[in-house]
Amino acid sequence: MIYTKTGDKGTTSLVGGSRVNKDDVRVEAYGTVDELNSHIGLLAELFREKQGGYYDELKAVQNNLFTLQTLLATEDETIYARLPQLEEEEVEILERQIDTINDLLPKLHNFVIAGGTVTGAQCHVARTVCRRAERCVVTLARQTRVDDVLLRYLNRLSDYLFVLARRAVVAEGKQEDLYIK
Hints:
The chain is mainly α. 62% of the residues lie in helices and 7% in strands. The longest helix is centred in the first third of the chain and has 26 residues, at 25-50. It is elongated.
């Protein structure tokens, strides 16, 4: 059954069954990561249609974000410990991907204005949602334990999305929109 009616009064269940308000800081954090995951899904499809590359990397990111969401939705430490974890290696993978992509790009001397191509613009949308998700997780971390790797992953992911946006524009033979004052 898709609908349970248990959330009709503004509460939702966390992993493990405890109920919280739908505007709880934990729900805001994992909900924003869910929104980011949806934007990454659109981005993956744009890359598959236009350039073919980066699709698999983005699908791996989506899987990692689902793990991250699940961890954020779990306050019970016993359950948390049994769940798949986001490992430091995933942060290192993003760093290697950032370096590889950045090596293909011209040196940057100005701020980049979001746009250039549809794919590039969607990268920037995902990047800004990623930054918001990171801020939500920082807020949650002030209230409860949040593994540092989750924050590092989101921080690095926004960097990855930035260089990927630049790569998308260059790969389509377009010029980046630069802020010049």
